[in-house]
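Usage

Read records sequentially. Each one opens with the input sequence:
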Amino acid sequence: MRILFLTHSFNSLSQRLFVELRRLGHEISIEFDINDRVTEEAVALYRPDLVIAPFLKRAIPESVWRHTLCWIVHPGPLGDRGPAALDWAIEDGAAQWGVTVLQADAQMDAGDVWASAGFPMRAGSKSSLYRREVADAAVRAVTLALERLRDPDFRPAALPEGPDGSRGRWRPAIKAAERRIDWGNDSTAGVLRRIRAADGFPGVCDEILGLPVRLFNAWPESRLRGEPGAVIATRDGAICRATRDGAVWITHLRGIGAGQGDLKLPAVEVLGADRLSAVPDIPLDPFAAVDGDTWREIVCRIDDGVGYLAFEFHNGAMSTEQCRRLRVAWERLRQTSARVLVLLGGSDFWSNGIHLHRIEARENSADASWDNIEAMNDLTRAIIETDDRLVIAALRGNAGAGGVFLALAADEVWAAPGVVLNPHYKNMGNLYGSEYWTYLLPRRAGSDGARTIIGNRLPLGAPEALQAGLLDAVFGSDAADFAELASGRAEDLASAPDLAGRLQAKQARRRQDEAQRPLAEYREEEMRHMRLNFFGFDPSYHVARYNFVHRVPQSRTPLHLALHRRIGGAAGGLGATARTRT
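and closes with the structure output:
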């Protein structure tokens, strides 16, 4: 089937549906929702059998949905309507939630229902739930809707009418005043719900030490106590703030008002050293055992001969300083008795490479970019040169750009089935990339395969990445099941009788590769290109980075996504059928 994705951006849900539907054999083209005229033009060019809107901020024009079947993927259960579905679910403490596939019509989220899928809620942020549970449910619901579309006897059901004649339950966007925290009265659980419900966007408006800010990414703290609302500690760039019955860690802030900028940055960086001069910094060793809830970016543990290294970096972005701390933790892990080392990354993202927000905040962004990529390279090389341990990269969450190639430095790369990889750099202003990708990618995908993967600039689902050679195994029913199974597999490897032989073979291959071409040469060549990206006359990388971190709206859809703008569109085989199924 020929399907047009109409979306505000190519976000995580859009990418997940893109790889899943292509796997089912559908042809997918993408158009960013810029204005009605552009949408009408895209439909005229592509003549799709179906339009799917995975992520929209406004209504599909009537000129489109009147003539072409259009589905809205709504992140709420059957009957839910409105622009803040997941926000309300978290605020209300809902135990169950879901995703509904609705047919677009004159009323927002009130069209006939083609399918829905539910899931149990967990204590997580809106962004985390969206990337995991919502994405999984959306795949199930859209897949079911497509099956029903092929059934000539199926008819979508209308939403039930309420007493006032309206269909479903409409809930408006949550106002900023409704999201505010009363630090003197709200419990820790209430504060967490409030910040998590606004995570990603818009954040919770607040004032800390006299500075108006928006709060993001909160974690519970079991032991620290203080005056409600007071900042009582810092750690790894985050602040700990007391509640009436405990405390929470807040890792990121965005300033509000003139002169504050609009970058989301580590809380300590936004508040500044002067405001925090009286607040104690309480670092926590990555290897320290902890009872109860707290927050730290890097955690190491040893279990049954396996060393685990988790790094919970916000949105998968890795700053210069974070890369350096992670390399120190890695070297310490190498000194333990663990025979197999597992890089777990974060729960939502394994890694997305260099930290563009931190770079943008620096006075000299070119120098900051250079320092960050060099730190990534140092970390990648440390993993490549770990020849006395078997190294596993276990991807519970997505990875992109340099984060993918950091994972490829491991001996084996495993992933959960819903993981999406973006193994390319060029979307960020034609960035060449480093992290030894010119060594790591061809040895897995071959020279031709590497050129194709880098040049396509498209996401890969875990099964496709497995087929391309980027992954060695895909297993589990979801991220949690994958993590449990990965631990068992790693423990089996640690006790396997052939482990010594595998390590000898690994060492021999590394010596052979180094003799053929030293790692230093790969890095030197990559960094020669990166120097031009950072310091050369072409500002494309700096412009793309600025647009990304400042959320500048798209003015057009890139041609590598908009298939219809490359081929001019053509009639779809099921178009007439799809358009009459209303």
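Summary fields computed downstream for this record:
- The first helix runs from residue 12 to 23.
- The radius of gyration is 24 Å.
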